[in-house]
Amino acid sequence: MKRRTFATAITVGLSTLFFGTVHAQTFPSKPIKLVLPFAAGSPTDALARVIAGPLSKRLGQAIIIDNKPGATGMLGTDFVAKAPADGYTLLFGTNTTQVANKYFFKSMPYDGEKDFVPVVIVGGVPHALVVNPSLPVNSVQDLIKYAKANPGAVSFPYANSTTRITASTFRVMTQTDLVAVPYKAYGQAVTELLGGQTQMMFIDFTTGLGHIRSGKLKALAITPNRSSKLPGVPAMKEVLPGFDIGNWNGLFAPAGTPADIVERINREMTAVLAIPEVQQQIDNTGYELLKPMSPTEFSKYIAAEGVHWGKLAKSAGIEAE
User: What sign does the dihedral 22-23-25-31 (CA atoms) show?
Assistant: First the structure.
């Protein structure tokens, strides 16, 4: 019995090694589909289009970007969750799709952690607390005082889980009567802010920097950290201790994707992100690179993020609907 068990173990081990080697040698042998769960022109889309070309060159196959927006990113994310686990369909996911959504929706078609293999983290985009210039405030403290003196007069738009939970956290921490206004599209939310229909927003740098620099929006603070792109603007946690909210993007594969394929994509993507020209292009989008992680490190990071966003949702008084 012991001999059979030992022989079986050797056979299984050699088979795993053999098929792993085959995967590594043959992948990829056809184009790879990179699914974006948000619309073309979105911050996620801007970042994905910077990395797709260089990654395609390193892998020797075309990277086809497939925008599948809808349901706060759940439509495209679910598509990848149910795709074959062979490395040829990847998700460009975010903290919204993989972590935050589960605290907003009681029923989801996928599990952000169980249905995916984290491949590689890419970058994060800072958010600025901005106000329409018509609002008579010049600092976070001014905004808080104004909102308390005029309960219900200040509203914020949101079109995804990140913008909603960030502004809701601000509302709870400052004990102000801010009004949340939902929008189906992020662009529409920004348009309404610019038009003065809403007064404040936590806007990503990709979308907001141009409006801030032109004077159409006024930046009061940045989260999670200060940025050289807006010198002199403080970090939110400096003026509101304990406020520490950031976001991130990364590549994910369906659960069950062979480890050697995951490692290959991680290795090539890490090399892409080390190219100076790519780094400059990413910087131009408003994104900032995050510390490189192995698939295992990224997985642990997401687990910790799940706990963090859960606490944020609870403290902001957000209940799944």
Answer: positive
Q: Under CATH, which number does the domain 29-124+247-315 receive?
A: 3.40.190.150
Domain layout of the chain by residue ranges:
29-124+247-315, 127-239
Global pTM reads 0.86
The residues near 277 (Cβ < 8 Å, ≥ 6 apart) are: none
Domains 29-124+247-315 and 127-239 in one fold? yes
**Nearby residues of 21 by Cβ (< 8 Å), 6 or more positions away:** 260
* 127 in Cβ contact with 71 (< 8 Å): no
Are 86 and 264 a contacting pair, CB within 8 Å? Answer: no
* Ordered per-residue pLDDT tens for the chain, 321 residues: 444 454 555 554 555 545 545 555 689 999 999 999 998 888 899 999 999 999 999 999 999 999 999 888 999 999 999 999 999 999 999 999 999 999 989 899 999 999 999 999 999 999 999 999 999 999 999 999 999 999 999 999 998 888 889 999 999 999 999 999 999 888 899 999 999 999 999 999 999 999 999 999 999 999 999 999 999 999 999 999 999 898 899 999 999 999 999 999 999 999 999 999 999 999 999 999 999 999 999 999 999 999 999 999 888 888 888
